[in-house]
Amino acid sequence: MDKQQKKLLRRMAIALPVLLLALWFVPVIAIIWIVAGLIDVMRNKGRNALMFNRYFFGNGILTWLLAPFNLAVDLISRRNPGIWKMEDFPPEWRAEIDSVLDVFKARREEIMAEIDAKFEKGRRGMYVYRWYGKPFIDTVPEFNREFRYVKTIAVSVFSGKESTTWHYGPLRLSLRLLYNLKPADTDAVFIECNGVRHQWNRDPLYIFDDTLFHRSVNEHDGRRYNVFMDVIRPTPFPGLLSGLLSMVSVIAERIKAVFYKNWTMIAGARKPA
Known about the structure:
8-stranded mixed beta sheet, alpha+beta, about 270 residues, 9 helices, globular
């Protein structure tokens, strides 16, 4: 039995008794959560045992706990195709996204050099300009203004031969937009979601619902730099979703510590309120 199998058995040994107790003492609530979880995880394509194990007993447990909330958000948002294209966004969303991407494209060498100076070595780094709407690093003046739809602006850096495990993001209030600043001329650097690999050397832009099962892979020797943005989902109620995201931003700081425990978070000094 390998380490992963032992870890799964330990988690099941804890989770199953808790679930049985919940079914005994609060059966209606427990059934709602089980049904919501099943609806949520079944949105994924290419379903397999690992996907279900991770969702109910592994790193997707928080996604499962938030499933009723996420499904409620789906009801007040535009249809979610899972993997998004820029044309799926309303014009005002596209204009704001493009304004951020244009800055990265125009200043890519300067930004990568700045990151390398601050993050000289390490497995994974996250260079944070804004996180859930809060400003951090202020070296790019164009990112210091308030944004209506773009809530996180950062750069994710992977060292050579560095990859994530298969995992789920927790919340569906926003979508994850990634843009590769320097695509390597190889198919060994990619993100995989919904049964499809997206190679960065073929298309530097990728937008997706990160509550779907996914992994990010760099099997190349060089560094991989991805613009990392969270964008409020297209909805008739952007103010409501933005407000909800602000409300969970305090919790998000703790979520960050859990979900990014293998990362070096480079955020500089926070600006005074």
